[in-house]
Every structure is written in structure tokens, then in C-alpha cells.
Amino acid sequence: MLLCGSCNRAKSWSCEHCDNWKAEKKPALCMECYWGNPTNYNHIALKSFRRLDLHWTGDEVKYYDAIKVVADQNKIELPDFVKKVIADKTKKQNGW
User: Fold this and answer.
1) Per-position pLDDT tens, the chain of length 96
2) DSSP 75
3) How far apart are CA 26 and CA 9, in angstroms?
4) What angle do CA 68, 66, 69 make, to 5 degrees?
5) Exposure check for the chain: N or C terminus, fewer CB within 10 A?
6) Residues whose CB falls within 8 Å of the CB of residue 30, separated by 6 or more in sequence, listed in order
């Protein structure tokens, strides 16, 4: 899998600290990991974890800029703010 430099380092760190890598070395577990199968994974380094990389391009950039302003006004890091907005919307739609 091709990775940018920072993702490659994240992968290396995750694998180096994974209990499977350190002890058991079961390839099947690696293939259930995000780093072994990013389109169909159950964990990252045996931890319950999900990743979502978002990109805004062209006309979408204005939405990024707008949510960044709101996050900054609320003193919330942008990833945490995006997760909060999604969680609030999901809770509302599902009646949670």
C-alpha cells in the first residue's frame, strides 16, 4: 500500500507497538488491520479504531473554512468539532 511519509510513520509506529507484531505474528490478524486492509478492517494494532480522511476541494473549501471558524470560536480542535457535529446529527436522526 502506498503511503505518504506521515502515514508511513504512523503505520510503522502502530505495527511496532502492536501485541500481534511483538508476540504472535499472525498474518491473518494483520489482514484485519487498517494498515493491512484499509478498505475492510476491524482494528488498528488490535485496538477498536476507525479512520476517515476527509478532503475539501474547489467549491467545498468554503465549507471547510466555515466549520474551522466555528470550531475556533468554540475552542474545539477541528477533528473533535467534526466528530461532534456528526454525533449530534446521528443522535438526532436515530432518536438517541
Assistant:
1) 677 888 889 899 999 999 999 999 999 999 999 999 988 999 999 999 898 889 999 999 999 999 999 999 999 999 999 999 999 999 999 888
2) T
3) 21
4) 40
5) C
6) 20, 21, 36
36 burial via Cβ count (<10 Å: 0-12, 13-18, 19+): middle
Which cell goes with 24?
504472535
Asked whether 73 and 65 are in contact (CB, 8 A), the reply is no
- pTM of the model as a whole: 0.66
